Structure to design on (623 residues):
């Protein structure tokens, strides 16, 4: 072979080797780039790289990233006002409203109420301001405001500065509702119908109603006054949802919540109560001034809708025992006699069995099976409600009709007997066991319980004082199946489980079947409560739910209105949503931190915790 041929052959061999080498290198580079971009995408989806600098710092700080040493949940009044713990620019600063708005209730505003008809208490119902009239300032606390006493001391004492209204101490002096002593109000536990105290009164009821064995757990107090009935039921493991109208007696619902008793502003008027059907084990009226026999028994029929089969209705005061008391009540004998006759007639029509009448207390029990008197109802010409869903009540007009006891109701109540509390808390609720709640299986319910136990454990690592009794009044703005409240269950606290009216699944009935309480509400409007009535607010997915429905700013201003100074909020939502929320509350006198999901930084759902700073009206800095 010539030298020329040899050089050509060797060149071809070397070129072939170079090609194979270059091909291998190319494959390696492409594979490396694929891995790099995959990891980059996962990193970005987790929220990092989108302004989530706080979450990044928390991830770098070590394994125990849920502990927040910088965020102080303790009660103190020395935090500087207006501190914005956020690197984002252009944070809008919200100014305080004037002090005259200290007790502002947007949907029960007294001036607006007077423009509505007085018939059937229409003017006392919810009448919310239009968008252009909504306040965009922060509701101030009154001067001298302090954190309420811990339960159970709060049941008996409320700081005067928190609700500085003495009118009830004069109006109700004889009835022993409330007394003013030094710098506190004292609540002796008296009432118009229980002069010997609420405990003695409840003992009378317990001689007929099984109050002490867990069968009666949820109660409804209509026209509650300062809610002493609900306050004294608590130690018997009964939780009462109390309501009264705004200022028929000044600040009565405000006093109830300052005492640590569940209550809302409400009235039996023209609109259905914001509770699901068959929710309560017991309903109560103690001289509540509701005209039960009026409007063809419409109000008794509405109570029947929310009363569980086998539940009890207690009526004490006029017209019960009218023969003895008509002179003391200063009412005509015949008028009272006719009033009681109508009540007895409607109760019979509703299949309520009278269990007792002793003194001024009468007690009826709703029958477990209404079929036994269905023919009598039909023969009497009773009107049955035509609506398919007895839980569809938000702004729905009340009607003088009987909620039918349909097949679905019977299946729910017979599928699983209602367990006594606390066993009821984690037993499978009848609505789920019967399959009558679309989209929620028994397995999903059990998984939901596991999930919320895990979430609440994480919350307790973030905020170590959740279990201490510091937070008595707690709200869950998007309650779902009630898993958050169940995981928190303690005699030191209670949870108002709110079911947004726009939720895909209406599960508030399940919440009640677990022995918890709650209410329907649309967060595009103000809640039916006074300012500063909740210690801790939980907002799980609320802002994703209401995206494109109403302004985040309006929801956050309402949350600020109902949260006490130095109260806390726990937001759980997608990171993009929480970054927006964090920026807004940065101008609302809050300290906040964004932390990772319990399962780590790659989960797009995050947790934002915030603490409201202490400040009062007419102050430019925190006191």
């Amino acid at each position: 072979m010539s030298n020329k041929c040899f050089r050509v052959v060797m060149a071809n061999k070397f070129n072939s080797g170079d090609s194979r080498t270059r091909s291998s290198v190319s494959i390696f580079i492409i594979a490396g780039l694929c891995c790099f971009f995959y990891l980059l995408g996962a990193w970005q989806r987790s929220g990092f790289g989108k302004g989530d600098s706080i979450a990044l710092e928390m991830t770098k700080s070590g394994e125990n990233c849920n502990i927040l040493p910088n965020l102080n949940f303790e009660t103190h009044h020395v935090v500087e006002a207006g501190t914005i713990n956020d690197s984002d620019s252009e944070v809008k600063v919200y100014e305080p409203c004037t002090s005259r708005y200290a007790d502002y209730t947007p949907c029960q505003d007294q001036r607006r109420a007077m423009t509505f008809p007085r018939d059937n208490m229409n003017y006392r119902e919810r009448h919310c301001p239009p968008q252009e009239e909504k306040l965009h300032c922060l509701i101030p606390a009154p001067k001298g405001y302090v954190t309420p006493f811990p339960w159970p001391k709060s049941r008996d004492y409320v700081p005067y500065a928190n609700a500085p209204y003495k009118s009830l101490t004069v109006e109700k002096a004889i009835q022993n509702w409330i007394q003013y002593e030094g710098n506190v109000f004292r609540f002796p536990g008296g009432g118009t119908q229980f002069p010997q105290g609420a405990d003695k009164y409840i003992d009378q009821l317990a001689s007929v109603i099984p109050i002490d064995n867990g069968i009666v757990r949820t109660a409804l107090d209509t026209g509650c006054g300062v809610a002493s009935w609900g306050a004294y039921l608590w130690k018997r493991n009964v939780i009462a949802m109390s309501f009264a109208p705004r200022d028929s007696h000044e600040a009565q619902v405000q006093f109830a919540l300052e005492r640590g008793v569940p209550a809302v502003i409400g009235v039996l008027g023209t609109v259905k109560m914001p509770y699901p059907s068959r929710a309560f084990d017991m309903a109560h009226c103690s001289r509540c001034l509701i005209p039960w026999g009026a409007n063809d028994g419409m109000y008794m029929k509405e109570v029947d809708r929310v009363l569980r089969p086998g539940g009890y209705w207690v009526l004490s005061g006029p017209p019960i025992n009218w023969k003895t008391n008509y002179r003391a009540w200063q009412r005509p004998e015949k008028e009272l006699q006719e009033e009681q006759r109508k009540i007895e007639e409607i109760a019979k029509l509703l299949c309520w069995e009278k269990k007792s009448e002793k003194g001024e207390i009468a007690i009826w029990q709703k029958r477990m099976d209404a079929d036994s008197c269905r023919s009598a109802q039909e023969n009497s010409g009773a009107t049955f409600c035509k609506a398919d869903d007895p839980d569809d009540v938000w702004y729905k007009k009340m009607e003088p009709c009987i909620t039918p006891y349909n097949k679905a109701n019977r299946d729910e109540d017979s599928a699983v007997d209602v367990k006594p509390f606390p066993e009821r808390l984690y037993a499978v609720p009848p609505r789920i066991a019967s399959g009558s709640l679309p989209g929620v299986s028994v397995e999903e319910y059990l998984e939901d319980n596991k999930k919320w136990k895990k979430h609440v454990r994480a919350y307790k690592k973030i905020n170590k004082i959740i279990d201490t009794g510091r937070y008595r009044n707690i709200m869950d703005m998007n309650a779902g199946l009630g898993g958050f409240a169940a995981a928190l269950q303690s005699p030191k606290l209670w949870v108002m489980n709110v079911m947004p009216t726009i939720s895909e699944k209406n599960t508030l009935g399940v919440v009640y079947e677990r022995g918890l309480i709650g209410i329907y509400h649309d967060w595009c409007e103000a809640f039916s409560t006074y300012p500063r009535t909740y210690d801790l607010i939980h907002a799980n997915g609320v802002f994703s739910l209401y995206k494109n429905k109403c302004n985040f700013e309006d929801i956050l201003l309402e949350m600020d209105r109902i949260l006490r100074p130095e109260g806390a909020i726990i937001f759980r939502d997608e990171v993009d949503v929480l970054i927006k929320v964090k920026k807004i509350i940065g101008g609302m006198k809050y300290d906040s931190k964004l932390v990772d999901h319990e399962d780590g930084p790659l989960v797009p759902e995050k947790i934002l915790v915030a603490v409201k700073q202490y400040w009062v009206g007419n102050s430019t800095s925190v006191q």
Observations:
- DSSP finds 20 helices and 17 strands in the chain.
- The longest strand covers residues 563-574.
- Residues 229 and 358 are 19 Å apart (CA to CA).
